[in-house]
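hey so i finally got around to running the thing on that chain from the lab meeting. sorry it took forever, my laptop kept dying and i had to restart like 3 times. anyway pasting the input first so we r on the same page abt which one it is
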Amino acid sequence: MVVLNGSVALEAGCLLAFFVVSVAHGSPPAVDRASLDARGGLHFLPLDLTPYSGPVTESHENGQQKLAGAFEDGKKTGKWSFWFDNGQLKLAGLYRDGEAQGPWMEWYETGTKREEGAYLNGIKHGKWITFYESGKKQEEATYQSGVRHGSVTTWYESEQKKFEGDYQRGHPSGRWTSWYENGQRRFEGENSAKKPDGPWTSWYENGKKQEEGVYEKGKRVGRWTGYRPDGTKIEFFYESGKIVRRRDSRPAENVIENPLP
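ok and heres what got predicted. didnt touch it at all, straight out
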């Protein structure tokens, strides 16, 4: 594991070798997790007053192993692995004092990686990457204290970039840009104090402008201009997010009653 700026670089081969382990010779036999009693956030053997410490296992109805892990003083600890009923590894990671800690990986039932990242005291922290079942990258996001904090990028399965923007403590921040799958921009605008704030523009999939205007603390203000697919223009004038006036380039009988979405 290599830690860089709070993110964890994960090597699939190393992680598999690290997590998929057999019980060492001389270790106590694993008990069925389903047989443990949960009391007050701890796990106990039936009729036992001392929180359980030792390995556990569990199987699917078809006999395939479902999980392997361990408890210490009644709490999950160390390496835990989970499998689909076809024998394919589903999820693998570490627990400490009952909370997910350090690197975790998840797979699709086909064996393709689904997600990878790290936990800090049971919550997402640092860089997390998700993948399509085809293996193509779907999203890369940075987390802090369990919420998005920093850059977020998403892609279409075709590998064309879909979205790029920043978050601050889980809220929109800075410039956001989105694209259609053909590479044309879909929208672009600024955010501040958790809300759209500043100029925003959207486009049709053919690259022609659809709408443009300004937000102020999350509300539309001033003139917003919309462009219909046929090129005709309509203008809306806002005050504190409400339309106070409109102007349309079409003849009166063709004017639409509602603004563009």
